Amino acid sequence: MKRYILNSLAIAALLFAASCKPEIETTAGTSAGQANFTKYIAVGNSLTSGFADGGLYLEGQKVAYPNLIAAKMTTVGGGSFTSPFFTDAQANGSGYLSLTALVNGTPTLTPVTTNLAVRDAAGHLTKYTGEVQNLGIPGMRVDLAFAAPFGAANPYLERLLTDTQVGTVSYFQFIQGRNHTFFSLWLGNNDALGYATNGGVTTDATNVLTDKSTFALLYSNLVNSLTANGQKGVVATIPDVTSIPYFNTVTVAALLNAAKAINPAAAAIYIQTGAGTVRTATAEDLIRLPFQTAGLFGVPNAGGIPYGLHPLNPIANNWVLDKDEVIKVKDYVLSYNSTIKSLADSKGLAIADTYSYLNQVKTGIVIQGIGINSSFISGGAFSLDGVHLTPRGNAVIANVFIDAINGKYGSNIPVVDVTQFRGVKFPN
Fold first, then answer.
1. Which of 51, 357, 373, 407 is the most interior residue, by most CB within 10 Å?
2. Which residues pair with 306 in a beta bridge?
3. DSSP letters for 135-200
């Protein structure tokens, strides 16, 4: 099976965020404003589905931000909201990572492999039939949303298709005919994220940067379809992929300090860039989270040269998003977001600016009395894969969407109580 979601295992120093007694914000009134929330559908990728900790499982599905939004919409005329939940007997879904130990600040991440919803040796997930309104599919991209063969290769979409639809029905076709009155659209992250999390190395359709003009055309098709009958909705911008823990836990400085602790003569970290050159790494070069547990750093080659500590044995380019690749991916994200905002404005849609908001989270914010930041494990916002959200992170993002909806349509959807949701689950 092709890999669409990253497996992220890392060892990181923990910085425990302090929190104070929460003060819960409330929204007065019970008006839907100019919107109709009778039937809400959520279109998106892994973030929309509730994917977390490197897998899709029942607890994550239940706290996915669309589910939290839908629950609050019921106070302003919203109807029921259905999600393709795994059963209790198969609650661990595709499997995920669990924090099973924390010794002297060093976490142990263990794959959960029991009570899975895997139906065969090929890794296909147990089929789900019936009504679906949370249409989030892990790994989904704007470009691949129009490629029917992707439905056969992606286990999360394959799970929701009938046998006759597999390989013949695209995601774009799958989301049609839902008779929705309101929608959220958070798609496009993987059009940049796949490239970034593969270290800027392109190996297949899941890790290329989607051409800017292609993105604009296809995203327009999505929006036009979702608003075909005059429906209102909210679209979200694409986060700065370089602001997530996946790229900010294993730093060049941390690696050099670790090397110096063993050999004080260590002077620099060396990387191979995407352009093929070898040079000294700088703080602008972002090392992928899984490098921490790859067991490569400092290991000598046949010639006795330690990996990453000499220009003759540099860290390979697939482990690093070098500074030129960072500039490139940021440029694409800004272009995608320009398209998203322009289309939203032309259609009169609400905009949840997650790009700006998650950049604030990176530096640290206090929400309802709780400190949240993007530090790996301790920050509270991101799960153990360093990419996807914790339950608390989902609650925070749900409120970004709710605020955007209320602001655009004059509705009064209450905000989610962030204090009721956990960050990373620590071992007992």
1. 51
2. 300
3. EE-TT--TTGGG-THHHHH-HHHHTTS-TTTTTT--HHHHTSS---SEEEEE--HHHHHHHHHTTT
DSSP-derived letter for residue 283 is T
DSSP 373: B
- In the chain, the amino acid numbered 46 is S
Q: How many CB atoms lie within 10 A of CB 6?
A: 20
For residue 50, give the DSSP letter: T
| Structural element, H or E, at residue 327 | helix 323-347
pLDDT of 17 strictly over 60: no
Q: What is the Cα–Cα distance from 48 to 45, expressed in whole angstroms?
A: 5
Please report the beta strands in 255-413, taking only residues with DSSP state E, as ranges in sequence order.
270-272, 278-280, 286-287, 320-321, 350-352, 365-367, 370-372
- Residue 171 identity: Y
* Cα distances (angstroms) measured from residue 343 to each of 180, 235, 346, 349, 385: 20, 9, 5, 8, 32
Give residue 95's identity as a one-letter amino acid code. G
First to last CA, the chain: 34
The number of residues in the chain equals 428
Least confident of 20-34, 316-330, 331-345: 20-34
Nearest-10 crossing angle of helices 65-73, 391-409: 50
Tell me the pLDDT band of 293, cut-offs 50, 70 and 90.
Answer: confident
